[in-house]
Amino acid sequence: VQLQASGGGLVQAGDSLRLSCAASGLTFRNAYTGWFRQAPGKEREFVSAITKSATTVYSDSVKGRFTMSRDAAKNTMYLQMNSLKPEDTGVYYCMVSNYWGQGTLVTVSS
């Protein structure tokens, strides 16, 4: 099983980024898939998930700005992040059924 997260970078407040997480060795079908992030000096926190029942949920801090999606044909999940804020800075991790990707760094400057 391998999860490869990509798409992070350095942007300014108000900009957008799209993160991708390509999965191999497993599928999204009937899987809990999620995005988490860890800011410097803080614990990892939940960002968004698509549950086993295909319900999409978001943390209050990103609701209305972030959109999570999945492409089953490409076995890839995405996190579209709009109106980015400096407090969105952190390493973003994808997770599928308790398997974790290596993380991709997002830095938002003010």
Question: In words, what does this structure look like?
Answer:
The chain has 110 residues and is mainly beta. The protein has strands at 2-6, 9-12, 17-24, 33-38, 45-50, 56-58, 66-71, 76-81, 90-96, 99-100, 104-109. The strands form two sheets. Strands 2, 4, 5, 6, 9, 10 and 11 form a seven-stranded mixed sheet that branches. Strands 1-3-8-7 form a four-stranded antiparallel sheet, with no helix packed on it. The N and C termini lie far apart (37 Å). The mean pLDDT is 96.
Describe, in short, the structure shown.
This protein has 110 residues and is mainly beta.
Question: Descriptors for this entry?
Answer:
globular, mainly beta, 110 residues, four-stranded antiparallel sheet, 11 strands
* Cα end-to-end separation: 37 Å
Overall number of strands = 11
Give the averaged pLDDT, no decimals. 96
Characterize the largest beta sheet: strand count, sense, and whether it forms a barrel: 7 strands, mixed
Order of helices and strands: EEEEEEEEEEE
Low-confidence stretches: none
Helix- and strand-based class?
Answer: mainly beta
What is the global morphology? globular
In terms of DSSP E residues, the strand content is over 45%
Estimated helix fraction: under 10%
Radius of gyration: 13 Å
State the helix count.
0
